[in-house]
Every structure is written in structure tokens, then in C-alpha cells.
Amino acid sequence: MKHILVVEDDKMIASGLVYALEQEGYTVFHNENVKTALQTIVKQKIDLAILDMQLPDGTGFDVREKLSNTAVIFLTVDDDETSIVRAFEGGADDYVTKPFRIRELLARVRRTLGASSGDIVMKIGDIIIDTATGKVYKNNSLLELTALEYRLLLTFATHKGQILSRTQILESIWDSAGNFVEDNTLTVYIKRLREKIGDSVNIETVRGLGYRVD
User: Cα–Cα distance between 28 and 154 in angstroms, integer?
Assistant: First the structure.
């Protein structure tokens, strides 16, 4: 389970963000300032930090300096080029301006964690996913999947053992144009994926809750 540090002094933004991340299955630590964030860093292993640029007792950079080998997403109200360049030069993996759409931020979190983990090849059941090439193999044979089927399989692979609600799945497989898959078609896509992967992966329907892959 990935550990995420959220350093944000706006209580409304923080509460919504923490809730959304926890619903995704992450362990979340929230701090409102630099001082308490540094205390958390000492005590906890952090896989990703989401840092507000402007904090009551400093900046997100003050926290970033104490995070070694940790992915960072900066949050800020400034969207000018100078601020963006400064953020990336300061070690940011991504940069999100306020106000932001929670689904977009969650997608960026998943992408950033995937890139920082170094996991290029993933295994789920008898299926091998090469995320560097976007190819999927079943018993060493190339499996032909549509782009949406691939994203759906990748979602299950990155959340093995977890129950995913339909909403969580839908949020993770939005297309590159930002268009969301309709809820009433998700069942069809899962059915098609099950037919292609066969017994190699068991996509379990958890009645009233969603789906799970072990």
C-alpha cells in the first residue's frame, strides 16, 4: 500500500483530497504546515508527497528538501511560466494549479506513482503487462486488447487484492481526451476483458461493492 503525504493548510481542500485518496486505497498523512510535515517524514515512509507551495510557516520547497527519492506533486494558485519552471527545478514530478478537478489529480497521482516505482513489467495471474511498450502477454503470447481494455487491466493490476468500486474504475480509465466511460457500459467492457484473458486472471464481482482481482 502506497503512503502519501498531503501538506495543505486549506482545510476544505485537504479534507476532500484526503478522502479521495483514501477511497483509492492509499494511506494518507495530512499536515497543515512545514513543521509538522517534517515530523511526519521522520516517522513515516512516504512514497508520494502532495505539497502546497505556500504554507503558513514556509513553502512546499522546505518540505521537498527533506524528501529523498520521493515523488512530489506541487499544488499552487500560480500558473505562470516562472512558477512552473521553479517547481520543476525544485524537484517536482508534477504541478497542479488550484482549483483542480479531483479526478484529474487522482490520475496524476497514479501516473506519478507508476513512474517513480520503476515497475515496467507487472504480473497479474498468468498475465504479463509491459507498461513500457503497452503490450500484454498471456502464456507468452501477445494478447490483443483495445486501449480501454488495457487501461482497465492495468487498473486491476495496480490494485491487486483491493475492492474497487465502479466509480473508482471509471475514474481510472478515462480516455486521453478527458471523456469518461459511461457507468452502464462498464459491465460490457469487463465482460469483454474477461473473455480475452480467460482463466488467466479472476476478476471477481463483489456484490454491492464492485470488483476485485487477487
Answer: 23
Kindly state the percentage of the chain with pLDDT values over 90: 38
182 SS3 class: coil
Count of C-beta atoms within a 10 Å radius of residue 79? 11
pLDDT per residue as tens digits for the range 13-64: 999 999 999 988 889 999 999 999 999 999 999 999 999 999 999 999 999 9
CB 122 within 8 A of CB 157: yes
User: pTM score, two decimals?
Assistant: 0.57
Q: CA torsion 201→206→209→214, rounded to 10°?
A: -40
147-158 vs 183-197: helix axis angle to the nearest 10? 80
Residue 21 cell numbers, joined: 485518496
Pairing of strands 3-7, 27-31: parallel
Question: Using CA atoms in the order 185, 186, 187, 190, what is the torsion angle rounded to 10 degrees?
Answer: 130
Other CB atoms within a 10 A radius of the CB of residue 49 amount to: 26
Q: For strands 203-206 and 210-213, give the pairing.
A: antiparallel
